Amino acid sequence: MSHKWYIVHTYSGYENKVKASLEERIRKFEEEKQRQGEKDAQGKYISQILVPTETVIELVKGKKKTSSRKIFPGYILVKMELNDESWHVVKDTPKITGFAGSRTQPTPLSDQEAETLITQITEGAYTPKPKVTFDEGESVRVIDGPFTNFVGTVQETRPDKRKVKILISIFGRATPIELDFIQIERN
Fold first, then answer.
1. C-alpha closest to that of 99 among 8, 11, 4
2. I need a labelling partner for 163 at 20 to 30 A (CA). Which of 8, 97, 171, 186 fits?
3. Which residues of 136-165 are buried (b: 16+ CB within 10 A; e: fewer)?
4. What is the tens place of the pLDDT at every residue in 21-64?
5. More confident residue, 58 or 78
């Protein structure tokens, strides 16, 4: 049987602690199997655990700050061969509430879904995203740069470049300016 990716539901906010607990449980289970002389140790059943996160960028006190944000709060991904032992090791880990799918038969991600998701997670780590995005027509206030405290309306967004074009009123005339997403906030 091959390893598949499974979605595991956890208490929200405990994803990293659950990952560490599960890794520790796997290590202990593997040691116990080896002590008993069994060659088929648990480490072969569970091969990888991921907490899906993305890097986000924001302006804090006038400085750019990057941080990590969970893409799916309350969920982790576990690559494993599903059998009774591996199911119990995962299910009996504190703060894990279960697998995605039915109660008795967890549903794995298809290879295509898993590949797409893992690619998004790994590529997302290298391209920080703005913490907040904006829609055309939205009223915003400039919080950084020479137009600080000006209020304007979003005319165009370019998420790929993390830029936004807004119209602000200068001397009674609507003037378009281009700013980074992190230089504005919702009004």
1. 8
2. 171
3. eebebbbbbeebeebebebeebeeeebebe
4. 999 998 888 888 788 776 554 457 888 999 988 888 777 777 77
5. 78
**Cα separation, 113 vs 115, whole angstroms:** 6
Residue with tokens 């893992």: 118
Per DSSP, the residues of 135-169 read -TT-EEEE-SSTTTT-EEEEEEEETTTTEEEEEEE
Structure tokens that stand for 84 in this block: 């009774």
Say how far apart CA 166 and CA 133 lie, in whole Å: 13
Q: Give the phi and the psi of residue 151 in degrees, each rounded to 5.
A: -110, 140
Cα–Cα distance between 182 and 65 in angstroms, integer?
10
CA-to-CA distance for 133 and 181, rounded, in angstroms? 7
Q: Encoding tokens for residue 74?
A: 């309350």
